[in-house]
Amino acid sequence: MSKYWNPAKSQLEDIPGMDVSKLSIDTLTVATRFENPGTEPLVNPIYHSSTYIMKHVDDYLRILKESGYIYGRLGNPNSDAVECAINAIEGGAGTLVFTSGMAAISSVLIGFLQAGDHVICQNPCYSATFDCLDKILKKYGVETTWVPAGCALREYEQTIKPNTKLLYGESPCNPNMTVLDLEAFGKLGATRGILTLVDSTFASPFCQPAIRYGIDISMHSCTKYLGGHSDLTAGCLTFKDVQNWKEMKRYQSSLGVQLSPHDGSLLLRGIKTLHVRMPRHSSNALKVAEFLERHPKVQYVLYPGLKSHPQHDIAVRQMVRGFSGMIAVEIKGGVEGGKAFVENLHLAQLAVSLGGVETLVQHPATMTHGPMIMSDDERRKAGITEGLVRISIGLEDPGDLIKDFDGALEHVKKGN
């Protein structure tokens, strides 16, 4: 039986004769399982039941106290299983899984903030995060100060107010791949008594275990690398402190954003190959990024594994098992150049999302960060340029991908 830690049940399981704390992440991604009573299946079954039978009225409060199962919205065995697996990888005090990445983000913002509170967040960030802070929470009296993504930590520090309750970061950043110094970020929050939250989706917990750098809350859209196959939507929050986990668990139940058993099962399956997929994503991305950086129709490439990346030294220090598969590339010719590139690919597919086995591309200025979310002025302030293309490199042969990108770049007009 492998190690898992579920703070609700206060259980710690070990492999007999082994020090689980010394197992590699490769082993933890495969071997972490949730224990079932009696005969144990190798693969967790899917528990479709929406409710659970009790023999006595008094069982209700007893089961709630023991964190057993009463009703699907309050928790289910499949969610518990995948929470244990993610928590083992992250090294946290507890993990919760949600119906999507934005369900995780909006829940933690609603749960830990109130009217009169102040947030400091980098710009750019994921478009829906921007919308949630700039449009939705603003209506309820939560103030947000925006600092440039990739800025020195002093810009966060200089904007702290007496009512600052949350420092929010992304690393690498969506969509322009800036890297945040997680250790310094965590220390700043701890020193000033302010919660720190980092969206580490672009890195995955395999490449970048954020909790281990002192971050209070590590967030991932599990739809991406953790799921890995573009067939589910899910999100997760991992907490450094168990008290914050307990508080968020209560809010999660009331908000009704618990992950479904079916998606929990798919997510757990995806996690079992995370340690195999991520090195290939990383090696493929580096080869493609090096090719694009040399191409005459490319203005610049931002990939943490390139020495030309402004925060390459930080990435080397904290992205301990590879630089992931996300690339930002500025195509010459602005909007028309970017469109010509993405619309003339054949192997890579034009689609939003990322982190799957297939290579995907999208044009942020007209798609994810387009006019339905951000104005032209807001995009300029965020540094989202007109020719910027976001690439999620998959598991195809890198030579085939390079040929596909080379062919698409032929459709970008010369002289731009």
From TrEMBL:
<keyword id="KW-0663">Pyridoxal phosphate</keyword>
<dbReference type="Pfam" id="PF01053">
    <property type="entry name" value="Cys_Met_Meta_PP"/>
</dbReference>
<dbReference type="InterPro" id="IPR054542">
    <property type="entry name" value="Cys_met_metab_PP"/>
</dbReference>
<dbReference type="InterPro" id="IPR000277">
    <property type="entry name" value="Cys/Met-Metab_PyrdxlP-dep_enz"/>
</dbReference>
<comment type="similarity">
    <text>Belongs to the trans-sulfuration enzymes family.</text>
</comment>
<dbReference type="InterPro" id="IPR015424">
    <property type="entry name" value="PyrdxlP-dep_Trfase"/>
</dbReference>
<dbReference type="InterPro" id="IPR015421">
    <property type="entry name" value="PyrdxlP-dep_Trfase_major"/>
</dbReference>
<dbReference type="InterPro" id="IPR015422">
    <property type="entry name" value="PyrdxlP-dep_Trfase_small"/>
</dbReference>
<protein>
    <submittedName>
        <fullName>MEGL-like protein</fullName>
    </submittedName>
</protein>
